[in-house]
Each structure stands twice: as structure tokens, then as C-alpha cells.
Design the sequence.
């Protein structure tokens, strides 16, 4: 085995080496535990770095400096934050539903961590190579909604409840386009297994990779998936559930100390896992972007792409204002849904049109025309100006 | 390998206990939202049971549809109809006799259906069902039922939109 | 077209992001403990008591130089009632040299004070002014924030440093008054001398003190 491929497989080799110290019948078990430990250590680590990067990035976008006090360039800020949230008083409202209030953040974090199980982080680096991996991810993602509801309802606080209702409505609405935009990939690959999806994008034409994002339907799917992913993770501009200006902190208003930190962690981990899936589905997973860059370890590519995705999310957060609830819903049902459905049809057509420039032209034209047309229609009905209110009788 | 009790594997027993506990709690708890949450535990238990039977697809779909959608729907229905307060209900409604009869009847029908459809040779090896296989048979053998279900759901969807449309004005959702 | 504005916005924020690394003018943040924004002359936060004398005077000298005559007007006018004054039983000479009552205790609870400056406005003796010191945090939230005479005393020099224009006006006014009262005292003394010549009666001290109280501003 060459040194490079050894580096590529370093974590796998490490896992096997450690597991080798145990009796044979225990080895699969130990291997799994090691992989879980790896995931549970790595992603919160990225979370810590991301919080600093996000605050610094947002600061720069607003011509501020961002945190720069704790440690060199403020990079130990998460340590300080961690100590703070660990030592803070844990306040539970007197009327709150104690058990549900306690369970909500736990359910969220557990569900989000489970999502990483089917994420291929590198070559041979996936915890559970399931036949229905993608389905598993979406099934797990759906159960985070419940934890959000639990948090909002058990707090006995109107802001929490409103935030939770908003969050649940939003997540349900955007789950439809999220699933549909991912379905395109399943249609093309013919498999729900994340590993197979990455492998299907492994080839190169010349030095350009066969990523799905470089096809008309793949590009449209990618954009739609990212939008739906933003909404699904409650990030700006879809952060209505925790809109500070109207709902204090939304569904986790009544959480403090470590439970609050858990919600924070869960939210960011959710963002990582969904970004990881966007990478897996559309951006070639752990594959190198150019054929001559294949010497860089596969996990290196994955984390680089993840970093890029996070940067994009931060950039979007720093740019876009928050949507209004009606705009949010209109966007989901009137724009996202038709576009994803059309994308399904386009992907089917692509599949049966055979190789050639023709299918490129036709598919791009159809998608572009639909986009422009839909945009026009939606904009025409958009009434800019003072808002009119309708009250219940 | 896996320890067994009364001929049943330990994971199965644990999951089954969880499922039944959730169902019992859903029936007995006084707070409606608590009932809904316990029902979710039952759904999760069922999903785990499917997974325990190596039926990945059914398990994940159970999770996606029941925990992700049905549970939320139930919760929404409770909150929208009863308000966000904490209404307390008696565990036993006044017409408990009727409920008992209905439950018994449902159980009887289910038992009958299950025992009828059991294969004669119970110990045959579980068929290896891949997701792809399910997809293929849905699109070939069972394409008719699939289409009927699809039409039914579309009709329901359109109906929901019409119900939700504001009555006074023509402008509404699509 | 749909999404056009979004792209424009993204370009704008990208420009901001990159620009903040290149041009220093974009970053307006003043990094507080190391750098400080220049103090504006009209800044005010909590009152202090003016004394005439050097900045580094001893405590006795500070107290001796306090302009406050414990008239308690500020105590009565302070809206949140955070001033507490105990009059002295004896007297000490003020800046014109007249014996005056002085505050035996003068406490301000700055945890209550709302920086309204009313005490300054009502004081007829230019004895209380607003300070600009803001780094007042302490670990004792009761005793630590209750300032007594010694803590409140600041020299006139200090006043000149923080509010130069205002302090110059005040000084001019006081000098004028001092001159006036000296002239009056002289006149009174002359009159007294005349009267004393007529019938020895040493009384002019009290009326002079009362006249000196008349506000001129
Ligand atoms: S500034 Fe206002 S509140 Fe403070 S001591 Fe003077 S009168 Fe009282
Ligand atoms: S009003 Fe002025 S002289 Fe009178 S007690 Fe207050 S500070 Fe002293």
C-alpha cells in the first residue's frame, strides 16, 4: 500500500489497529464504537470552530471585527462559551412540563447525531452502509421536528409555542421539496445508498468530475436542495421560528445553561449533516474536484467541501433578511414544489434522451424557462407597499 | 449469539415492551399532548420492530411518515382544537362500553386477518428484500394500486386547498 | 428576474467582507481597553463635589476646600433621592473666607443615581458637578457603590480638565462674585467702621453672608 493511499485510509487503519487488540467476537462491536466516538468528537469540534468563524465572518460582512479576545484571534472563544454554558444556572419554568422539557434537547441531539451514521466522510468511511441510507437520513431528520415541538410546547410560554408552531409548519413544508430534489439523484443512481451515490459520481471526463451538480437537473436540484436545507435547519433567511425581534428566541426561549447549548449544538450539527448530504448528493461526496488532485485524502476533500458549504451558509445569513411567514409558505408551495416536480420530469427526460448536446440544451432551456416564468408570475402577484391585514371575525 | 428469553430475542422483547408501554400510556394519560407523545413512542417502537425484522424500507418509511408527519399532525390537531392550555380529561369516557366493543372487534378482525395470511410453512427464511426490489414491484406488479392511491391523495390534496381557500375572495392558494 | 436582488446583495456583502481586511477605514470599532474613543466635553455620568485646591491634596485639605455648604437643596431635589447629607455643627471658612456650615456627611448612592444632573442645576454654590469617570465597577454592589465625601471630592483642576468651557465660566462667575462680595465687605466694613465710630456694633458679618448667596447666574 502506498503512503498516499495509507494516508487516505488512515482513520480506517487506525480503527482496525485498535480493534485488533480485542478478541475476535468483540471486534465488530469495538470498531463501531470507535467510529461513533470519531463522529461524536469530530463534528462538535467543527461546531466549535464554526461558531467562531461564523461570528467573525458576520462581523466582517458588517464591517466589524468579531470576537478577538479569547486566545489568538479569538479562536478560544468556544472554550469560554462552553465553560459559561456548563456553569450557568439551569432554569426550568415553574409551570413547565419537566420531563418533556428535559427530553426535547436530548431527542434533538440524538436524532441529529444519528443522521451522521450514513454520511460517507471518506473512502470506506461510513458508519452504516445501508441499502436505504438516504431514506434513513430523511426519516431521522423528520423526527427532529418533534423535538422542536416538544421544546416549544413544554415551556408553557407563548413565544416558545409560537416559535415551535412556526418551526414545525416550516419544516413540514420544506421537507417536501427537500425530498423531491433529492429524489432526482436516486432516479439517476438507481440506489438509495449514499456510498453508491458517491461512487456514481467518481468518474472524470478529461480532468472534470462527473458531479451531478454539473448537469442541468443536478444544478437545479442542488439549488433547490440548498434552499430547502436552509429552511429545514431554521437558518437565516428562514429563521422565523427563532426571530429575535418578535419571538425572543422562539422555541428555546425557556432554555438556559447546558440545555440551551444542546439546542445550539443540535442546530449546527443539523446544518453540518444536511450540508454533508448536499455534498454527497450533488458535489461528489469525498471525490476530488479535478482528476489530478486525487492524491489528497478523500476525507480531506469532504471536510474542505463542508467548510465551503458552511461558508456559503454564513454568507447567506449575513446577506438576506428574514422572510415573512406568508412569503415563506408561498415560496415553498408556489415556487419550490413546482420547480422540484418539473426537475423530476426533466431528469427523467435526460435519462431517456441518450448522450449528446441536445439533451443538455433541451433540459437547460426547460428549467430556465420555467424559472423565469415562475419568477415573473410570482413577482406579478407580489404586492409591494403597505401591508393589508385580515382579522378573524 | 443473541440471548433469547421464551424463544424471543432480547432486542425484540425490549422493543415490544416499549411499544406496548407507549400505547398503554397513550390510552391512559390525562394530558392529550402527553398521549400524542406516547403514541410517537409506539410509532418509533414499531419502526424498530420492522428494522429488527430486517425490513429497512418499511422501518424508515414508518419513521418518516408516522413520526415525521402523522405525530405532528396529531399534535397540531390537538393544539388547534383545544387551545394550548392544559385541559385534563378523564381517562374513561362515559361510553366506555362502546369503546370496549369497538376495540375488541378491531382486534378480532386483525387477528383473523393475520392468522389467515400466515404462510403454511412458518419457518421459511426471510426473503431478502432490497429497496430496489420494492421499487420494481411497485412499478410493475402493483402499479395499479399505486396509481389509485396516488389519485386518492391528489384528490385529498386539492380538496384541502379548496377547503382552505378564503370564501369571500377568489384569491387563494393557487 | 427572480433572485437578481439576492445576487446583488451577496456581491455587496462579499465586498464588505473583503474590504474589511483591506481598508482600515471600514472598521469603525474602537477596541476599548487598549483604545479609547475621545471623551466628548458634554459627557456626564455621576456627580462629584468640587473642592478648591490641588489635585493631590491630602484628605483634610480636600474636605477643607469643599465648596458645598450643606444647604441640602440637592438632597431635596434629587428625583430618586440618592443624596444623603448631614450638616456639621461647626463652621469652616468658604472660598471667600466666610465661615460656613459644611457637610459632615455627604453620600451619593450611584447605584440609584440616574445621572439627571438636577443636583448640579439647583446647587447655588457651584459645589456639585458631573464627572465623566465611567469605570466604576466593583465587587461590592452595596457599599462599593455608595460614595462618601472623600470619594466624591474632586479638585477644581479636575473639573477644568473634563469640562474646560463650563469650568472657565464657573470660575469667572465665582471670581466676579468674590470681587463683588469683597467690595461689599469692604463697603460694609467701611460702613461698620463708620457706625462703630458712631456706636460700636459688630454685626455686618451676617448680612454679607446672605447677600453673597444671591444667585447671579
Ligand atoms: S444626578 Fe440626578 S439622580 Fe444623580 S444625584 Fe444628582 S439629582 Fe440625584
Ligand atoms: S446644593 Fe450644593 S451646596 Fe447645597 S448641599 Fe447640595 S452640593 Fe452642597
Sequence:
Amino acid at each position: 500500500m502506498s503512503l498516499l493511499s495509507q494516508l487516505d485510509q488512515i482513520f480506517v487503519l487506525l480503527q482496525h489497529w485498535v480493534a485488533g487488540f480485542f478478541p475476535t467476537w468483540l471486534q465488530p462491536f469495538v470498531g463501531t464504537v470507535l467510529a461513533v466516538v470519531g463522529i461524536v468528537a469530530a463534528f462538535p469540534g467543527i461546531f466549535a470552530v464554526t461558531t467562531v468563524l461564523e461570528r467573525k465572518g458576520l462581523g466582517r460582512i458588517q464591517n466589524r471585527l468579531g470576537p478577538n479576545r479569547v486566545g489568538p484571534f479569538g479562536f478560544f472563544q468556544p472554550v469560554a462559551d462552553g465553560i459559561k454554558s456548563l456553569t450557568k444556572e439551569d432554569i426550568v419554568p415553574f409551570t413547565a412540563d419537566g420531563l418533556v422539557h428535559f427530553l426535547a434537547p436530548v431527542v434533538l441531539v440524538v436524532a441529529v447525531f444519528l443522521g451522521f451514521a450514513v454520511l460517507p466522510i471518506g473512502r470506506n468511511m461510513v458508519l452504516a452502509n445501508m441499502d436505504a441510507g438516504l431514506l434513513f437520513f430523511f426519516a431521522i431528520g423528520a423526527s427532529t421536528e418533534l423535538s422542536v415541538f416538544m421544546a416549544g410546547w413544554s415551556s408553557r410560554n407563548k413565544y416558545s409555542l409560537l416559535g415551535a408552531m412556526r418551526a414545525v409548519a416550516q419544516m413540514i413544508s420544506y421537507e417536501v421539496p427537500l425530498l423531491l430534489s433529492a429524489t432526482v439523484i436516486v432516479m439517476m443512481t438507481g440506489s438509495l445508498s449514499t456510498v453508491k451515490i458517491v461512487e456514481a459520481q467518481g468518474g472524470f471526463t478529461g480532468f472534470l468530475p462527473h458531479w451531478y451538480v454539473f448537469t442541468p437537473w443536478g444544478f437545479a436540484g442542488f439549488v433547490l436542495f440548498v434552499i430547502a436545507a436552509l429552511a429545514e435547519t431554521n437558518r437565516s433567511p428562514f429563521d422565523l421560528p427563532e426571530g429575535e425581534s418578535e419571538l425572543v428566541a422562539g422555541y428555546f426561549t425557556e432554555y438556559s445553561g447546558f440545555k440551551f447549548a444542546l439546542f445550539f449544538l443540535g442546530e449546527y450539527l443539523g446544518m453540518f449533516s444536511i450540508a454533508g448530504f448536499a455534498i454527497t448528493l450533488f458535489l461528489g461526496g469525498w471525490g476530488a474536484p479535478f482528476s489530478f488532485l486525487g492524491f489528497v485524502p478523500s476525507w480531506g476533500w469532504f471536510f474542505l467541501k463542508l467548510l465551503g458549504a458552511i461558508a456559503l451558509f454564513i454568507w447567506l445569513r449575513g446577506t438576506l433578511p428574514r422572510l415573512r411567514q406568508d412569503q415563506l409558505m408561498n415560496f415553498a408551495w408556489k415556487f419550490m414544489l413546482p420547480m422540484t416536480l418539473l426537475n423530476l420530469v426533466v431528469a427523467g427526460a435526460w435519462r431517456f434522451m441518450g448522450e449528446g448536446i441536445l439533451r443538455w440544451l433541451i433540459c437547460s432551456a426547460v428549467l430556465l424557462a420555467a424559472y423565469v416564468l415562475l419568477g415573473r408570475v410570482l413577482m406579478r402577484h407580489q404586492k409591494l407597499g403597505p401591508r393589508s391585514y385580515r382579522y378573524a371575525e | 449469539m443473541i440471548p433469547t428469553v421464551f424463544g424471543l430475542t432480547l432486542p425484540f422483547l425490549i422493543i415490544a415492551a416499549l411499544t406496548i408501554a407507549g400505547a398503554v400510556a397513550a390510552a391512559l394519560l390525562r394530558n392529550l399532548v402527553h398521549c400524542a407523545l406516547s403514541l410517537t413512542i409506539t410509532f418509533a417502537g414499531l419502526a424498530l420492530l420492522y428494522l429488527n425484522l430486517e425490513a429497512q424500507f418499511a422501518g424508515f418509511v414508518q419513521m418518516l411518515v408516522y413520526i415525521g408527519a402523522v405525530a405532528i399532525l396529531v399534535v397540531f390537531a390537538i393544539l388547534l382544537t383545544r387551545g394550548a392550555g392544559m385541559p385534563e380529561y378523564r381517562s374513561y369516557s362515559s361510553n366506555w362500553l362502546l369503546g370496549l366493543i369497538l376495540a375488541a372487534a378491531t382486534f378480532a378482525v386483525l387477528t383473523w386477518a393475520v392468522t389467515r395470511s400466515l404462510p403454511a410453512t412458518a419457518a421459511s427464511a426471510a426473503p431478502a428484500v432490497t429497496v430496489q426490489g420494492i421499487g420494481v414491484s411497485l412499478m410493475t406488479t402493483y402499479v395499479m394500486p399505486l396509481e389509485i392511491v396516488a389519485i386518492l391523495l391528489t384528490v385529498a390534496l386539492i380538496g384541502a386547498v379548496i377547503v382552505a381557500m378564503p370564501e369571500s375572495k377568489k384569491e387563494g392558494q393557487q | 428576474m427572480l433572485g437578481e436582488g439576492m445576487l446583488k446583495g451577496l456581491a455587496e456583502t462579499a465586498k464588505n467582507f473583503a474590504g474589511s481586511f483591506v481598508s482600515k477605514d471600514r472598521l469603525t470599532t474602537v477596541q476599548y481597553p487598549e483604545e479609547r474613543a475621545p471623551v466628548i466635553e458634554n459627557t456626564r455620568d455621576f456627580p462629584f463635589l468640587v473642592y478648591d485646591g490641588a489635585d493631590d491634596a491630602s484628605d483634610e485639605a480636600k474636605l477643607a476646600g469643599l465648596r458645598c455648604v450643606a444647604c441640602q437643596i440637592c438632597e431635596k431635589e434629587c428625583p430618586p433621592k440618592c443624596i444623603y447629607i448631614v450638616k456639621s455643627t461647626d463652621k469652616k471658612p468658604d472660598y471667600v473666607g466666610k465661615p460656613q456650615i459644611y457637610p459632615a456627611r455627604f453620600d451619593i448612592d450611584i447605584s440609584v443615581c440616574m445621572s439627571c444632573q438636577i443636583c448640579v442645576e439647583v446647587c447655588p454654590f457651584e459645589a456639585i458637578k458631573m464627572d465623566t469617570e465611567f469605570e466604576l465597577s466593583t465587587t461590592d454592589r452595596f457599599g462599593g457603590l455608595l460614595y462618601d465625601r472623600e470619594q466624591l471630592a474632586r479638585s477644581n483642576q479636575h473639573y477644568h480638565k473634563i469640562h474646560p468651557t463650563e469650568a472657565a465660566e464657573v470660575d469667572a462667575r465665582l471670581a466676579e462674585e468674590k470681587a463683588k462680595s469683597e467690595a461689599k465687605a469692604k463697603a460694609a466694613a467701611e460702613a461698620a467702621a463708620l457706625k462703630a465710630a458712631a456706636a460700636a456694633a459688630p454685626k455686618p458679618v451676617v448680612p454679607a453672608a446672605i447677600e453673597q448667596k444671591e444667585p447671579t447666574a
In short: The longest helix of chain B spans residues 56-82. The CA atoms of residues 12 and 52 of chain B lie 7 Å apart. The radius of gyration of chain B is 21 Å.
